[in-house]
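Handout, page 2. Input:
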Amino acid sequence: MHKQDQQEVLDNKGFKKQQELLEVKGLKTYFYMEDNKVAKAVDDVDFTINKGETLAIVGESGSGKSITSLSIMRLIQSPPGKIVEGSIKLEGKDLLKLSDSEMRKVRGNDIGMIFQEPMTSLNPVYTIGNQIAESLIKHKKMKKKEAYKRAIELLKLVGFARAEEIVNEYPHQLSGGMRQRAMIAIAMSCDPKLLIADEPTTALDVTIQAQILDLMIEMKEKFESSILLITHDLGVVAEVSDRVLVMYGGQIVEEAPVHELFTNAKHPYTEGLLASIPNIDADIERLESIPGVVPPAHRFPKGCRFAPRCKHVMNKCNEANPDLLEFDSKHKVRCYLYED
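Output:
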């Protein structure tokens, strides 16, 4: 839908109505291990992404962030993994009901993905130009000459001064930041509706990180896309996101607009994450840390999954897992502290 069409959709108060692009409902992705153990990596997750929005999913390693993104792309390796329940609807079309060939058309065309380490997703034996052109030939039915011309245009868009040379170079000839730019060019080549970025700046130094984040937002606005950003870095979240989901133990424990989360966090886990961020204005000798680690997905506690690490733990926290409560229309939290 074009921007002009979106502006005409108003709510009953005359304000522009946000339109849903992606709806994830009741998503459960489990991994079946030896000894009949089941790892509930993503366990009953609901969220939406609106058109033109940047939604961040944050949490420590093992919280279920990346498995959520791979589930949306239907890239869960089976066995041992399986999406056992739920729906993933892109503009009303349930991706879990598509055939493999139909899903291949969605990947790259409707949904683009940027991975944490581009060397694992860029093919080392093909040039950068070949890898961009391949997507355009496959999804946009372009001729080879036209696709290469577009590849050079895309490389210029993502900041390559010598795009005509880069198009003939191989991934190993580029620096980490340049490879990440090339990945963004590939991901955006078919004007996707949704860009999934899984830890896109983790392996990069701070200066290059900022450049990549600016570039992602610039490309999002140019192509009128939405972004799902997977990260453990709350500094990155504050920089680029509109709304935030905090994940822990395969579940969403808090959801809020980005400003609300940073100024009025509710869940003890979110508070712990925020307290561990360095602040140059604060006179603190030592940063706080959350005791313990995220439990393995096959050994989640019976009650609240954060209870063993929580300083506010109560008896009922160990008995049953709390529901995700709606604190107000935009702020949700999974914690017994707010039950009443």
